[in-house]
User: Fold this.
Amino acid sequence: MTIVTGIVSALKSLPVRHDIAMIGEITIMGKVLGVGGIQAKLLAAIEAGVKTVILPAENEQHVQYLPDYLQDRVQVHYVSDIREVLELALVQEQ
Assistant:
């Protein structure tokens, strides 16, 4: 997700928000796939000061089982398609 977001950002001359983190893989057709190690990755994002994280919808059940002190410190957006990622991650023209 991160690489595709960076490429689209460069091609469209739209900056990526600086206050988010994103975790996930993407297929050639744009579907976002789940990943492992969600707890460690969320903890790293929290320690870096990130308040918003974009995660694959497939990982939603993993987050539900995390301790409340982790869940309460970040806002999580669940996505299933790269278009959703770009909508959340890119600073849209005004």
Notes: The first strand starts at residue 20 and ends at 22. The chain is about 40% helix and 20% strand.
